[in-house]
Prior knowledge:
- The protein is α+β, with helices and mostly antiparallel strands.
- It has two domains: about 5-85, 3-Layer(aba) Sandwich (Rossmann fold), CATH 3.40.50; about 95-165, no CATH class.
- The chain has seven helices and three strands, in the order H-E-E-H-E-H-H-H-H-H.
- It has helices at about 5, 55-65, 80-85, 105-110, 115, 125-135, 155-165; strands spanning about 20-25, 30-40, 70-75.
- It has a three-stranded antiparallel β-sheet, covered by helices on one side.
- Helix 4 (about 105-110) packs parallel to helix 7 and helix 6 (about 125-135) packs across helix 7 (about 155-165).
- It is globular, with a radius of gyration of 18 Å.
Amino acid sequence: MSRAERNGQHTPSEAPPLEVRDLTVAYHTKPVLWDVDLAVPAGALCAIVGPNGAGKSTLLKATMGLTPKAAGWAHFFGKEYGSVRERVGYVPQRTSVDWDFPTNVLDVVTMGLYGRIGWLRRPGKHDRQAALEALEKVGMADYATRQISQLSGGQQQRVFLARSCRMRICT
């Protein structure tokens, strides 16, 4: 591996969708992940497996800056997450969502747009139609007006998958 590759310097066409180097994450000064290296090539199907508490979610959250890194870096398509987040979808674990929050399925999907349209603007007609199309793709369009807490766990995950897709304007 060249020095440029070790430092995450690639041309846009050769940068992997996800590259992690020397990543260490600590909670209260206690390392929970250390010196993680990972490169996911374009077109690859990748799974992160391990027992509960092994750090799978921590790794993913650290790559997106949702959990602070103690050392190392993570790049998506050769760049920091913040500059390419519209190209990255994330479906949270069910335990990290307040299922009693009074919102319906369509609103959950359109919430994925606020990073793009701004917190004080409301999604327009085009945005709501695109959200319905994303729900259609995951088989949940018939539940658009249903309260999110009234869905099964699998249905809730499909709604969040539609939200992730809508955030990135999937086709």
